[in-house]
Amino acid sequence: MKLFLLMLASIISSTAYAQEISSHYKIYDVKKQKTVTLDDIVADMHTNDVLFFGEDHNDSIGHYLEAEIFKKLDMAYPQKTALSLEMFHTDVQPEVDEYLAGVISEKNFIKEGRAWGNYKDYRPLIEYAKLKHIKVIAANAATRYSNAVTMDGLKVLESFPKASFNFLPPVPIDTAQGRYYDKFIEIMGGHGMGSMKIYQTQNLWDTTMAWSIHKFVKANKGVKVLQLNGRFHSDEKLGTVAKLSKANPKIKILNISSFSDAGFPNPDWNKFKNLGDYIIITDPAVKRSY
């Protein structure tokens, strides 16, 4: 009886918290041109394979929504859900798998898995995956490869030993042009050799994450993948989304662009409709996670 009461109290507390949080975000379906719920996004995944959640890395509400979507996906598609993360690198996939299997400590996982400094924001997803035996993809390129490309350009990858390509996509890696390049240069404040090499590093990240997801989807037919990354990587279905679509034109992708905006709680959705299939605007008054 005591255990039942504790469980009931936990459910009530969780429900109350969800109701409180719900007043601090709004979700817009670009195709239907109306506000919707998390359940609507999950239902839309019935005919899609990969859901990109493009986040602002310090958005507390965004992190909460990521965990909620992940749980809802698992409930809707049990044993057919996986998590993919920009926040872990391909070469620490063994550490990720070992922690999920319960054979190494969290302390070792955080240290040897080189978890981001704000790992606490992603911990609920990892712990849920561990509890439910859900696979997690360490999707991004390791810093040593990123640094090499920033110093010497993408061409340097062709000099790496064969063993390195257990963790790297095939070379050569294309450098995306057009709208994605223009957006990047605008953020960097103009053209220059330094900007171009950093842009090549950006393309390494995009290509590596796309390659990681593509490999997983190919090996795990019918699985729904939730990919988390900074929203620049997936806004307008550019970056990683475009690289994944090129690697597998048959793959069906949805993308979310999530961020805070001063127009909350009544944002001008038309300003953002080009960013994704779903736009999530969060309350800028809520404290950032760092």
Summarize the structure.
The chain has 10 helices and 8 strands. By secondary structure, it is an alpha/beta fold. An 8-stranded mixed beta sheet has the order 2-1-8-7-3-6-4-5, sandwiched between helices.
Low-pLDDT ranges: 3-13
Named CATH architecture: 3-Layer(aba) Sandwich
Number-wise, the strands total 8
Helix content: 40-55%
Mean pLDDT: 93
| Domain module tally | 1
Which fold name corresponds to the CATH topology? Rossmann fold
| Lateral arrangement of strands in the main beta sheet | 2-1-8-7-3-6-4-5
CATH class: Alpha Beta
Structural class determined from secondary elements: alpha/beta
The topology string of helices and strands comes to: HEEHEHEHHHEHHHEHEE
What fraction of the residues are assigned to beta strands by DSSP?
15-25%
The best one-word shape is globular
